Amino acid sequence: MNAGHGDLFRSHRPTVTPMCNRPFSSTSTEVDDSVDQVGPRPNRAKWVWLPILLGLLWLVLGSGSAAAQSCSGTLANVNFGSVSAKDGSTVSGSLNISCSGFATPYVRACANIGLPSNSGTWSDRTLPGPSGAVLHWSIYTDATYTKPWTSFSDSNPQPNIVDIPLSSGAGFAVLPYYAKITGNQPAAPGTYTTTFATVDTLITVSGFTSNPPACSTSFTGSGTFPFAVTAKVVSDCQISATTIDFGQVGQITAPVTSNGTITVTCPSTTSYSVSLDAGQGAGANVGARKLTRNGGSETLTYALYTDAARSRPWGDGSAGTSTASGIGTGSAQNLTIYASLMAPASVPPGLYSDTVIATVTY
Fold this sequence. Notes:
Elements: H1 2-10, H2 24-38, H3 42-68, E1 70-75, E2 78-84, E3 89-100, E4 106-113, E5 125-128, E6 134-140, E7 160-165, E8 171-181, E9 190-196, E10 201-208, E11 220-223, E12 227-234, E13 238-241, E14 256-265, E15 271-276, E16 289-293, E17 299-305, E18 324-327, E19 332-341, E20 352-353, E21 358-361
Parallel strand pairs: 2-12
Antiparallel strand pairs: 1-3, 3-8, 4-7, 4-10, 5-6, 6-8, 9-12, 10-11, 13-14, 14-19, 15-18, 15-21, 16-17, 16-20, 17-19
Helix pairs in contact: 1-3
């Protein structure tokens, strides 16, 4: 429309063309001058002036409104804090979105997060850590951890979506997220982190009146929300043990043997040692423990060893005993307890038992 009327106007006064760069009042004055030079045709001069004035107003109002439409976002860094690689961890937070300048009553905002370098795949995100180690994690848009948060770069795009009601063209919304580190990972202790830069985040938007449009690549890119994700894996070892059962025995004339198992799970590269106390029998020590008859005070002497030859008593390192040691892999490691019931022994029949506490130090 502006080009057509400009041509029409120039057919009468070519020197008027630069008027668009002048203040509004100067434009009015210039048109009046041109009319005087063309001749006394006031009706035609007024007809030419009106479309130019409307064209200028449309340019000012139309282009200004489109440029003002925008949505911005902020997301605080995702910090899992200290994490056990065995137990895993969860954390939640939110993306805050603020929009302004829209002429529609609503705007749909689609928040996308990508894949920074060295951060895994859409279905298995990873945090890089020490010496090339990685920690597996995911981020979701729902509290049940079933809807991964991705972007349109994913073959199955799943942006975080919100429809924002607007008042005077502006509105605000909070989009929750739920992040999770799975347990039972062979991750070494240390700090794991990745950064979602501006190129890895994007809010795309589309204003609407009644039915919200589906998020698509045709939406307008509006804002970014860079953030970092950090977790610190700590040396957190777990320990469990089975019961040592010597079974039913008669008169004890020769040593009776049995085995048990201590299971240790420590993060990868974590050094650990396992010690055993003296138990609860009266007069026991780490080298010679005592089984006590239930309901009585009679005892049977037994010993625990770290080796099948039963030559290295397992204790706390005192009184000639040793401890068992190892280096964690992130997976369960079994340590065999070699037990011997000493002979000879002559005691009343009954159930004899003891409780020993195993301690893992790392």
